């Protein structure tokens, strides 16, 4: 269930056992911090005192309040965080003692609680941050991922607010036209459908996808018995709710899980790999990043920096090396050293006469030969701001090598959010994550129902 290998979910009246292994030793740090800085901070700073060895004595009333909140009917991350940080001004032994009590109450092994606290301590010192207000956001994100709380009601609302803000420009483009259509009197005549088609195309849904979407909407309107424009919002909302397929959990017979990251240069593939690695690390997985884009200058160096920052392992060869050989040897390393996730970067374009898609197909063949079933997922990264180009890229990569999931970057502030609808309806591909900002915590799971509400302003 996250960072902890054995922990009980006390909210909701159910008990679950974690499926992920315990977190490995390397420290994590966000984009501004290098691995060397984190290592130095961890080495120089005294480790937080283990429970029972000089740890501060916790107030019984405080303990009762936190325990009662933890045993509530549902998770309340803001409430827990407020109690953890109440009356604290700096990150010191009092905070570590409170965190240990939280993990102990949830049934976490002491060794893993100590590992969580040590890594967070190293990050805070590497960032030269001590004030509670400066640490709050990072601690919240780590707790959410470690305790598997992203789909809890409160955190869903938090992400929904970010999604709503990111879709503001797209919604503005649509809202005036949709508002006029929904406010019309009369039936769903040809003029209504013509105006709706124009609105979708303007929002970068795409011509082909718009035709399919209009066909679906006509059929849904008939099945719902909606014939008037004033009720059409119900039809559109219902269609968007079911439009997006859910990602399938890959079948991994034996570790490591191998994820092949594909996409053209400039879409944010490198930073997406870093954010996915960071998420996986906070969830307790041992991650290896493989630099398979050997044709782009500085690509290897960039990934090496990111791997250090997020506490992931790294495998690379020299610039210009055979990408398939990189993939083969990276998986070999992962199998020998006990990694359970490999994130394989690939080229977005080549500086040789070799066809890019043929090169990607070769990598897939080599991976399958080395580790049957690999790659377990091919994840395409596309840039929301490119609109129709993103749709074209999806078609090209999917037809050539097969795409299992989409990660949509740079959704924050774009007026072309309709591309998500176009991708879903044209290719029936699940969108697994969306980028809602530049911070590590801004890569979040995509929820189709929330997207529909945010787009329509509901």
Main attributes?
single chain; flat; eight-stranded mixed sheet; 458 residues; 18 helices; alpha/beta; 8% strand
Report on this structure.
It is a single chain. The chain has 458 residues and is of the alpha/beta class. It is built from 18 helices and 8 strands. It has helices at 35-44, 60-70, 77-85, 93-105, 110-126, 132-146, 153-166, 168-182, 190-202, 207-224, 232-243, 269-282, 299-310, 323-337, 356-370, 388-401, 419-427, 448-456, and strands at residues 257-262, 287-290, 313-315, 341-344, 377-383, 405-409, 431-435, 443-445. It has an 8-stranded mixed β-sheet with strand order 3-2-4-1-5-6-7-8, sandwiched between helices. Helix 13 links the parallel strand 2 (287-290) and strand 3. Helix 9 (190-202) crosses helix 10 (207-224). It starts with 34 loop residues before the first helix and ends with a helix. The model is unreliable at 10-46 (pLDDT under 50).
Give the ordered list of helices and strands: HHHHHHHHHHHEHEHEHEHEHEHEEH
- Using only C-alpha atoms, the radius of gyration works out to 24 Å
N→C terminal distance: 32 Å
Main beta sheet strand tally, sense and closure? 8 strands, mixed
The beta-strand count equals 8
Q: What fraction of residues sit in β-strands?
A: 5-15%
- Could you list the spans in which at least 5 consecutive residues all have pLDDT below 50? 10-46
**Spatial strand sequence of the major β-sheet:** 3-2-4-1-5-6-7-8
Number of H/I helices? 18
Question: What overall geometry do the principal axes of the alpha carbons give?
Answer: flat
- Helix/strand-derived category reads alpha/beta
Let me know the average pLDDT. Answer: 85
Q: What proportion of the residues is helical, as a percent range?
A: 40-55%
